Q: What sequence folds into this?
């Protein structure tokens, strides 16, 4: 027997105790305090439990960057469930595959739009998956009924459930989240990330940013999130790290340069993470419109970039134009995701992804898994608090990825004499589109 417990939703529980009146989530005209976010997540937990779901059950979540995402995410965790975030652009065939592969018993989905009818696509997918018995549609108007048959609305799910719920006492090694990823061969596979993986990576990110953020007792740090929350970076390095630090999450469902810059100014955003093309787009918009960027510069205190190497000219231009330091990092879904970062206490080395994160070891090895000296190219391998427990229901792929006690990334890199890591090539042949990886196998199968 052990009394050691840890649940990723404890991050929210703790902030609701410490700063219940502080703004937790902002989207358009909706503003939720930590007390309100926690109460609604508790109602979701109670609603899921009333459907017969139990701790350990897998619950899929398909939602853009709206308040529904953190509400449902933490609610599933509080119930003891495992969150399976789904890309909102998946088609019915792809949704059905993920539901079957993850053994999801329920799907919570945003209703979508006329251009992207997410609820209808979810209904078609669930009709193909017998074990996914519950479909819950999160309507734009919380009081509206479900727009599809044989599905309950979010309002029906939480109706009559108390805003109080005892968060399930998960073990640290219990699975919290299954993030789907894939390579150039095979179908997408789910990386099982534990409560320990996710909590520790979020706290490490929070602490890494802290020296550049407001640090006083009533500090107002506000995290603008444009990367999709269903993706590992937005989820861990912003949403969970922001909640761990008691910050305010400013949610934008899609990246639009004008909306991003407007939100930074109006909501006094202090931290933003993007991919290099987003940085270029902000620079171009500011120049083409002739906007005064002084208010942006006065607000932002730290920006981070990942997903692809940041061109030196773009980084220098952005830092000079907006008066904020840009830190590059690296990670994968299998590493929760952050593994390396150009950290604030040390000078950045443009072209590198910085130093290993807290309690994370990074090596470069040859084809026989032997460590290579600094300056030599080889495969990046990682071990530490952030490495997944394995690929869900795929023991052979797990054994291959974690051979020798190190996660084999499939990326080719170099570590210099100062310990800075550079990613120079990929074993995995992929295309980067909007911060997401697009794999040739998926394109071929679609064609």
A:
């Amino acid at each position: 027997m052990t009394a050691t417990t840890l649940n990723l939703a404890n991050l929210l529980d703790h902030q609701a105790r410490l700063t219940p009146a502080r703004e937790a989530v902002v989207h358009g005209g909706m503003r939720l305090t930590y007390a309100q976010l926690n109460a609604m997540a508790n109602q979701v937990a109670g609603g899921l439990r009333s459907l017969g779901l139990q701790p350990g059950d897998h619950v899929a979540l398909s939602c853009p960057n709206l308040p529904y995402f953190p509400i449902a995410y933490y609610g599933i965790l509080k119930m003891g469930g495992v969150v399976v975030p789904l890309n909102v652009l998946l088609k019915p065939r792809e949704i059905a595959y993920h539901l079957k592969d993850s053994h999801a018993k329920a799907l919570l989905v945003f209703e979508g739009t006329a251009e992207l009818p997410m609820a209808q696509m979810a209904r078609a997918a669930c009709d193909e998956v017998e074990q996914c018995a519950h479909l819950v549609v999160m309507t734009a108007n919380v009081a509206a009924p479900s727009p599809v048959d044989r599905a309950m609305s979010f309002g029906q799910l939480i109706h009559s459930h108390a805003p109080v719920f005892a968060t399930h006492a998960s073990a640290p090694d219990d699975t919290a989240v299954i993030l789907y990823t894939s390579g150039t061969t095979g179908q997408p596979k789910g990386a099982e990330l534990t409560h320990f993986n996710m909590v520790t990576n979020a706290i490490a990110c929070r602490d890494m940013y802290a020296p550049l953020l407001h640090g006083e007792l009533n500090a107002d740090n506000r995290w603008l999130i444009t990367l999709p929350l269903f993706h590992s970076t937005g989820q861990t390095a912003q949403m969970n790290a922001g909640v761990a630090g008691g910050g305010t999450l400013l949610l934008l469902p899609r990246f639009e340069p004008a909306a991003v810059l407007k939100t930074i100014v109006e909501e006094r955003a202090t931290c933003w993470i993007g991919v290099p093309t987003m940085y270029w787009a902000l620079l171009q918009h500011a120049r083409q419109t002739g906007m005064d960027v002084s208010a942006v510069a006065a607000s932002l205190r730290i920006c981070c970039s990942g997903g692809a190497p940041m061109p030196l000219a773009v980084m220098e231009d952005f830092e000079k134009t907006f008066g904020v330091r840009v830190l590059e990092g690296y990670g994968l879904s299998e590493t929760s995701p952050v593994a390396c970062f150009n950290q604030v206490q040390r000078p950045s080395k443009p072209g590198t992804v910085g130093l290993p994160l807290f309690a994370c070891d990074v090596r470069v090895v040859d084809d026989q898994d032997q460590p290579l000296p600094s300056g030599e190219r080889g495969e990046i391998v990682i071990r530490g608090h952030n490495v997944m427990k394995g690929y869900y229901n795929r023991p052979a792929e797990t054994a291959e990825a974690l051979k020798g006690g190190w996660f084999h990334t499939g990326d080719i890199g170099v570590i210099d004499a100062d310990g800075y890591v550079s990613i120079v090539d990929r074993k995995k042949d992929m295309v980067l589109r909007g911060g997401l990886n697009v794999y040739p196998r998926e394109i071929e199968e679609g064609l």
Remarks:
- The mean pLDDT is 94.
- DSSP finds 14 helices and 23 strands in the chain.
- The first strand starts at residue 23 and ends at 27.
